[in-house]
Write a structure and sequence with these properties.
Lipocalin, mainly beta
Length: 228
């Protein structure tokens, strides 16, 4: 449980250091995640996610604060193939509906899972390409590490609670401009059954280590995972 508080503690400290010159955005990220198996080695994943913004401004309030607004909805499909014990590769496509325009994204992914004592660890490397009419082509390279910690016993069984921590780094190439975004997520989850689980927790994102204006994002992540 102590690890769960690392994310919000670091977030608070970082915001205090950058409050004078940074902008922020806060809201919620509800997500539905559906997975189905084709064979022993193939499966498909469908993710539907929306963004609801409740507040956005600068920390020093030099810009007018914004209230609630719906930002966007993403619908993403991914085909995955198990290549070895605990490792998968996949490719997919996402369509985004945002402010009356449509954004297309193509994704390629490698992931692996393992165990370290009671921890269930994971690594994921993803590349994606984003295309939108009137905007620059965007290429991203993403690396994520995660740890799932059972809160009851040595593993997460049906009806039991767990906590999960993700840390992700995104290298972004937009036209000729380079950027870096860092994400940290800490959730509490309930494994309702082998095919149904819920997760809830804070999701923090920042580009503060990239050139230009600093932006901080604070989301309440809500995830429902179903295997069908």
């Amino acid at each position: 449980m102590k690890l769960f508080w690392i994310v919000p503690a670091l977030t608070t400290c970082f915001c205090q250091m950058t409050a004078a010159q940074s902008s922020y955005r806060a809201g919620c990220l509800p997500q539905i995640n559906l997975t189905t198996d084709f064979t022993n080695n193939w499966r498909a994943n469908l993710r539907i996610e929306s963004r609801q913004i409740f507040s956005e401004s600068t920390f020093d309030h030099t810009e007018k604060s914004g209230g609630y607004r719906y930002e966007r909805t993403d619908i993403a499909g991914l085909i995955l193939r198990k290549t070895d014990i605990g490792t998968t590769i996949g490719a997919g496509y996402m369509i985004r509906f945002e402010g009356g325009r449509i954004v297309h994204r193509f994704t390629q992914q490698y992931s692996s899972v393992g165990r370290l004592g009671v921890l269930r660890t994971g690594r994921r490397v993803t590349t994606d390409q984003t295309i939108s009419p009137g905007d620059l082509f965007v290429f991203r390279l993403r690396y994520r590490v995660s740890a799932e910690i059972p809160l009851q016993g040595q593993s997460v069984d049906s009806g039991e609670w767990y906590t999960k921590i993700n840390n992700e780094y995104l290298g972004i190439l937009e036209g000729v401009a380079l950027g870096l975004e860092i994400r940290a997520v800490g959730v509490i989850g309930l494994n309702i059954s082998d095919r149904n689980k819920l997760e809830l927790g804070p999701d923090y994102r920042t580009n503060a280590f990239s050139p230009g204006a600093q932006r901080h994002q604070f989301w309440l992540y809500m995830g429902w995972f179903v295997t069908i």
